[in-house]
Specification:
Blueprint (H helix, E strand, L loop, with lengths): L8 E5 L4 H12 L3 E6 L2 H15 L4 E4 L5 H15 L4 E4 L14 H29 L2 E6 L12 H21 L4 E8 L6 H5 L4 H5 L7 H11 L6 E4 L1 H12 L1 H7 L1 H4 L3
Parallel strand pairs: 1-2, 1-4, 2-3, 4-5, 5-6, 6-7
């Protein structure tokens, strides 16, 4: 349990399954108040009811399509109106479609940029003034190791996560003296529904199955880091080490890891 979370309101996007669902559970277990965002009303209602019954805390939910900027902006305004103040924002929502650039559908490209980048920046842009006024808060942006090492068939997805990491690093420096913490979470493959859309064939998921992170453990690690001054969470550690070597020796790494990089 993280005692810093007690009675804190934490907004979580992508909260209807996977990491987002487990974040709601771990935050509630620590006495926090989850505010859940996703498209699936049925899933959100079930999760909220389970959290309230199991942990005896309030849990709120809002249906939102993060690819629709006007809709998402209105929902954030409604949340601020309903709750007065939010203590933390976890931008967990993300999506991907793995394709060669030449074969990619423009709609898929737009959706990845809208959900992974634009909706994240929208949430920060609207909630940051509240955090600054309070003199405290925590923004956690879930990026990816793909934002550090790009691979074939994930050019747009990697670009979106490059953007998240860059945005997060700059934001951290802007607010570090204002009492607001900013953390990026850079993950390898996680055992969630993410790959059903990213790679419907299932070939990539099978190829990396033994390396996959468990969403429950990822959510626990993120929750333990809430309201602490942690720059990055990098999982798994061996993949983060690989990304550091890649930054120093990209040509060598691309040659050595060519077969692995092309498994999508």
């Amino acid at each position: 349990m993280n005692r810093n979370v007690k009675d804190k309101k934490v907004l979580i996007t992508g909260a209807s399954s996977g990491i987002g669902m487990y974040l709601a559970i771990h935050i509630a277990r620590s006495g926090g108040i989850p505010i859940l965002i996703a498209r699936s009303e049925d899933r959100l209602e079930i999760i909220a009811n389970i959290v309230k019954e199991r942990f005896g805390v309030d849990c709120y939910w809002y249906k939102a399509d993060l690819s629709n900027d006007i809709d998402w902006k209105d929902i954030i305004d409604q949340i601020c109106y309903d709750h007065g103040s939010i203590d933390a924002l976890i931008n967990n929502a993300g999506m991907a479609v793995f394709d060669l650039v030449v074969e990619a559908q423009w709609k898929d490209i737009e959706n990845m940029l809208d959900v992974n980048v634009k909706s994240l920046i929208r949430a920060v842009h609207q909630l940051l003034p509240h955090f600054l006024k309070q003199g405290e808060g925590h923004i956690i942006n879930v990026a990816s190791q793909a934002g550090k090492i790009a691979t074939p068939k994930s050019a747009v997805y990697s670009a979106s996560k490059h953007a998240v990491i860059g945005f997060t690093n700059a934001l951290r420096m802007e607010v570090e003296k204002e009492g607001v913490y900013v953390t990026s979470v850079n993950l390898g493959p996680v055992r969630t529904n993410f790959f059903r859309q990213a790679d419907p064939s299932g070939s990539y998921e099978r190829a990396v199955d033994r390396f996959m992170l468990e969403p429950n453990k990822v959510a626990f690690t993120i929750t333990q880091s809430l309201f602490t001054n942690r720059r990055e969470i990098n999982l798994p550690l061996w993949m983060d080490s690989g990304s550091k070597i890649y930054q120093m020796l990209p040509v060598m790494m691309e040659k050595l890891m060519q077969n692995q990089f092309n498994k999508k």
